[in-house]
Design brief:
Four copies of one chain form a homotetramer.
Chain A (H helix, E strand, L loop, with lengths): L2 E4 L2 E9 L2 H9 L14 H12 L10 E9 H7 L6 E4 L20 E4 L6 E4 L2 H27 L4 H4 L8 E8 L1 H11 L6 H14 L4 H9 L6
Antiparallel strand pairs in A: 1-2, 2-3, 3-7, 4-7, 5-6
Helix pairs in contact in A: 1-2, 2-8
Chain lengths: 228, 228, 228, 228
């Protein structure tokens, strides 16, 4: 599996240079010990990974790289791009015409927000309200897109016309990141206080990387999903 | 002057720890030479700054800090946040209700985009089209905001309701950055190929920082606005 | 107090753009709330800092800057420079002749290392061994320096001649860093598993910054010195 | 070829996730264009890489990763570790006994330094002086190592005993870095003003990476070895 679809969006693992042995070898160089091969990991090596995770010796988790191709709504991308340790290249609405492709929530994801910042909880709304919300959002997206294409037809520059498009519009980007920065991303974005929509994406990222570095991510899981 | 207004937005220099002497002293420590005081800069010290700029010895330009408070449309903020060397905290549409505050272009800034990516040029549109564009954008913003407040009234969570809001909505953030990263930002965002809307902001940033490190920014200007 | 001496070395706080209010204001912008002034911090504001620290909302602690001038032995500087979030400029033994200035431990700091990596402990050695160690190190430094100056007199380039100098030689550098990166440095370098020699420096750094952002650093202390 | 030996040191390319197609694809996502496969690069794709390099659109060069295992003298490693965009794990003289392994220059690399900082030149010394320099450095290394092992035998902690060892001692580390940061490293460290000893290493790094991303590095070469 290399692609997970989320609504009309997706996360695709495009390439990886990653295995648990690289963590062990980065740590072993501290002792000038010889490198282990990926298929030669001993129980002691796995224990070393767990020790590094628990004691938050984070640097050995950096000698790897994952490249993703991602399609998300802009409001999700906006949160994603706040993670500064990593590389991004994104679709440009200055250079290209934005396609007619917008996020609309599932009815079951239309919810009310209860409580205060830092401790929000979310509660379901009535079926009527949920269905109506989906229809309203859909119609708003359509109207915005009509306005956009109308402005383009009038000759207005793409970079200005796009200003009427909602943050529900889909965008695409490449993201390249190492496992340590990835664990920081996952800690924050798979957390129950994260917005549900980015959580779906973060869960997908996790599903794609966990099998590539199984000892590392099992250890991360067992240590409370805290970034080392 | 600490604030520059741009439409309904602004750039405000909130605080600075910055002077030309810090550049000189960071370079002089390489030779174990004594520090100079800001009011004791000699011609040789100014020449040293120019040498560092020209030869792209960039690190001495990092021992300073500028903190800005900025209000921009989201489509401008999206470009701004791509600059990873620096610190950001932004308004959250998950935590707070978005105010009714949207970017609308000046009529004179409504233009057509001509040419290809990398070498676009922009040409004025007729007065009619320009006026009409402003009206259309204004109306689209209003409709989107009505949809947004309607969804909130139905009980929909802020984080979902905001998905209908256009990228013309204003946001606010704090940005803290050193002069070297700032010169990189200014090189890219005051450039004639940058979107006009972020150029207004980048020009404002430049107007605010240049007097604080006059020798540094004059040297940057004289060396073709290239990041050292 | 702006300078702490450590043997023949020192840490000097050269400049700061830092107060607790900047943390509060960076967090308050999320809610579009007005800024507070440094002398107007309420108990709620202090509680907010504590909340941010406890919940590891780290970015509001980045909108500040500390510039230090430091003199340490090279083996301490080597650990210091591993901290990548921050700016450094250092004395160059390629450009300048290294002065006759070397680290020699206090007799009471001459100790044996017991146990395994990750859980070393250190025990005192006899007075004789300690005194003898100090003499041996002193003599080794002197011999190395004589070799160095001898090579220079023979016409050998500084950058090559310096290769005989021990990592006990003193170096100087400027270091500019924000409070969040500083807390990471302090977590690791004031820790009991850190080398005693860098701990003296980290303790000095802490003594200099704590009064500048008292609420922040008291909160960091109360939350187990964990980086937010 | 994956390893280049330099004296008793080496650079080994341990792993790579890198090809020219990743540069093209990162740029093409701006236009929502489909990805190209590494073996399907057209002339237009190669031209795109050259355009990105020339116009300093640097981010597409970040979606790749190289992992190196390096053995260098400490005075070379000290310069290497100043490059903050990248990941390092190094041999620890706190945890392990330092082996008897020191840098000694080739006779032909013993030179005089002429001129001023920023425009040094280097001239050969007489055969006598060169031979004598090598002998003096060799003897100094041996004496220092004897002092070190003597201190260990007296029971002194490794972390303190190592303070007498010269910066000519060999160390080992893993280094993981992307092509953009690598080009910055190569620009500075293959430059004629860089210390000859790190230039040998930088040249080796270049020899190892150039065949992996041939279009990228040829373009870098043709554009004056300037970091995009």
């Amino acid at each position: 599996m290399t692609t997970v679809n989320i609504g009309q969006g997706f996360v695709r693992l495009d390439a990886a240079m990653a295995d648990d042995a690289s963590v062990v070898n980065a740590a072993r160089v501290s002792f000038a010990k010889n490198a282990v091969l990926p298929n030669q990991m001993s129980d002691a090596d796995k224990g070393l990974i767990n020790f590094l995770m628990r004691e938050k010796h984070g640097t050995p988790f950096e000698h790897n790289s994952f490249r993703f191709h991602v399609k998300t709504p802009v409001f999700v991308a906006r949160e994603w791009f706040r993670h500064r340790i990593g590389s991004f290249n994104e679709f440009s609405a200055r250079y290209s015409e934005v396609p007619n492709d917008f996020f609309v929530p599932d009815e079951r994801d239309v919810r009310a927000q209860v409580g205060k910042p830092g401790s929000y909880s979310f509660e379901p709304l009535s079926e009527n309200v949920s269905r109506s919300t989906v229809e309203i959002i859909n119609a708003a997206n359509e109207r915005a897109y009509e306005t956009y294409t109308g402005l383009l037809e009038m000759g207005v520059a793409k970079e200005l016309a796009r200003s009427v498009l909602p943050v529900s519009m889909y965008t695409q980007f490449y993201w390249t990141v190492n496992a340590r920065a990835l664990m920081n991303f996952l800690s924050l974005r798979t957390h129950e206080t994260a917005q549900r929509d980015i959580r779906f994406y973060a869960d997908a990222v996790y599903a794609l990387v966990a099998p590539v570095m199984p000892v590392t991510f099992e250890s991360w899981e067992n240590n409370g999903r805290v970034t080392p």
